[in-house]
Design brief:
This protein is mainly α. It folds into 3 domains: 103 residues, no CATH class; 50 residues, no CATH class; 90 residues. The longest helix is centred in the middle third of the chain and has 16 residues.
């Protein structure tokens, strides 16, 4: 008997993924959707959708709908005998035991193995940074941050540009927001860029009880930088009249270290 041809609907496609671990399986998302790229590792490794559930809820659809031209029937999967999936199926054939959760994770891992996170486009996330909707803006930030952690330089450039455009904080929520952005950008290969920007922040930020945490974080960052990259900038600040006596004490302490 010949193989029965699968119906060309999304649920029979390799790229179909359940929209929720606790929801009926006929609702899902397409792994080819670029908005999911920053979260694929998390979906694979943790089997959780918490961090991107709102996104999944927004883009989910019924798996019963007709498939697009990119349809990849699940019956056409080629499995390397030495791959995680191949070894799992080999064990199943020998013992009759199969860990379905592990097998599904292995299948997802194979699907994303050819995705180059370092070079995927980031335009959609960069556009979200300018959204008037706070949730959409935060989603753009966390998406870019995820890609930055995977080595995507364009994602870093977009988030760094947004960081520079955001004015020095004057309220506590703005301080916390700026701290979060710096945390995403603070990477060893970006410190030279950040040094110049954070020194500029010290010139522009009004020093008071509200901004104390932000200023302290800048000094903690500078303390981790090579001395030869910061000492001239700090010595220049000591001659500036705009800085308070207390702030200059911090500068001197940092230079002494």
């Amino acid at each position: 008997m010949g193989k029965e041809e699968l119906e060309r609907i999304c649920i029979n496609c390799n790229q179909f993924f359940p929209a929720s671990m606790g929801e009926a399986a006929e609702y899902g998302v397409c792994l080819n959707d670029e908005t999911l790229d920053p979260f694929i590792d998390e979906l694979l490794e943790d089997r959780k959708t918490d961090s991107c559930q709102k996104l999944l809820n927004r883009i989910k659809f019924s798996g019963e709908r007709d498939a697009c031209d990119d349809f990849e029937g699940i019956e056409e999967i080629e499995i390397d005998d030495n791959s995680p999936i191949g070894l799992a199926l080999s064990r199943f054939s020998e013992t009759g035991e199969l860990d379905l959760e592990s097998l599904e994770a292995d299948m997802l891992e194979d699907r994303i193995s050819n995705i180059d996170m370092k070079s995927i486009p980031v335009d959609v996330y960069a556009s979200a940074l300018r959204s008037s909707d706070p949730e959409e803006r935060d989603l753009g930030i966390t998406s870019l941050a995820g890609l930055i952690s995977l080595g995507n330089k364009e994602a870093f450039n977009e988030l760094f540009k947004f960081f520079k455009e955001f004015p020095p904080p004057t309220t506590l929520p703005e301080v916390h927001f700026k701290l979060k952005l710096l945390g995403y950008l603070n990477r060893p290969d970006a410190r030279t860029l950040l040094i110049s920007e954070l020194i500029d922040e010290l010139y522009q930020t009004v020093s008071n009880n509200t901004t104390r945490q932000w200023i302290s974080e800048i000094f903690r960052f500078l303390a981790q930088c090579p001395y030869e990259e910061i000492y001239e900038l700090l010595e220049k600040m000591l001659s500036e009249k705009i800085f308070s006596y207390r702030l200059k004490i911090k500068i001197r302490r940092l230079l002494d270290q």
